[in-house]
Target: Cysteine-rich CWC
Amino acid sequence: MTASVSPVHPDVKSVRCPRCARMFDCGRHAEPFDCWCKTLPALPASQVDPRGRCVCPECLAAAVAAGPATSPESAGGI
Model:
């Protein structure tokens, strides 16, 4: 079981991952930008969800490890 970390910034929100349904803290809208995801490599545009939905640390790490995908559908819509 994964413990939830309390947001350290008021703009950090708990959201549900669209891939695995886990809850995680997302700092996408924090000013200045301060999110855990900035420590990982950027995904190719073909793997970025055009709706702008973020994924949890586990799913993002798996997508980075899997390498480039040929289409958003094959990447699970990240």
About this structure: The first helix runs from residue 57 to 66. Residues 13-66 form one domain.
